[in-house]
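Researcher: Re-running this chain for the archive, since the previous output was lost when a drive failed. Same request as before.
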Amino acid sequence: MKHFSHLNTATEIINTYNGRQPFHHFTRDFFRQHKKYGSKDRKQITHLCYCYFRLGGTAKNKPLQQAITEALFLCSDQYNELLAAVQPALNDNITRSVKEKCALLHIPSGTFKIFPFTLALSDEIDQPAFNLSHLKQPDVFLRVRPGHQQTVTGKLERAGIAYAEPAPGCISVASSTKIDELLQVNKEVVIQDYSSQQTGILMKLITVPGPGFTAWDCCAASGGKSIMAKDIFGNINLTVSDIRPSVLSNLTKRFTEAGIGNYTLMKADLTKPISTLHPAGFDLIIADVPCTGSGTWGRTPERLSFFQEEEIDTWCQLQKKILTTVIPHLKNDGHFLYITCSVFRKENEEMADFIQKNFPVRLVKMETLTGYDVKADTMFAAMFRYSI
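Model: Regenerated structure tokens:
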């Protein structure tokens, strides 16, 4: 009976959720109000909800409980206790391929479109592969900081933690791994998605800087790319900014843990002109701009159901304002690295065209960083050289 109760609770939560706040905030508030659920119950109920959201628009034309159980079937690849209780015939076929499972569920392959905005995708994205990638939660990725490779892999092996190395210095582990209980986060490793780490390859296109090299991470957020820039370029003069005071406070703590002391921290609204910056300009500006986040919806699959396509234009207008503010602060021959965690052409290739048409820059390299083949996010990055 417990399994049917979990299914009923998941149904109640999904029916109540309206998409106006992140789903993990909504479930946190729900379970605060309903304290009868233990930690294992909360985990199982939440998992059912996330499986449902992973089907995107595909789930909307079915009775809700049927959609939830079918979603659990499609998102699972090994015996599932709840599925065995409520739909044993599905559980008996749990190890089959997604194509075979769709056939069992009488879902025509041509109608199984989880991601509903395929016409808006960047050109280099493999639409079928990207579509199906949403059925699995992405892994956690670690960037090993210089000098810590053997220490990190040794700790993982002694703890019996399975891991993969999809790229040099990059380690992936299951999302359930308690990283902070095993490794010194920020000192030994930085928790940073695979595709985010790949933006460092574009940074390395810059000639090794001499003394006085200046860099500005203008939308710093968690600061992962600032730490990566320090690891790539060495003792550079770093400026980091964000509009959110809470983010800047967290950055201070994180940089301390990372052993970074030589930096300037600044609260900045990048939609307005800024005068309090390095007067000579910067050798490198990193702009990981606010965006739809559509390349990360494998981590927040509720967005598949609640995102409205017209939101893309709203984000693009914000991005153009930020670009207009920050690019003029480059030195002559400085570099500008534009990054999004979006899969939409308007935020990616079309924004790269906007940059080239409106500023004195030359495109050095542009790349869609497809992470779906390694259970990672999908991102976009373009490096430009500024010349006046």
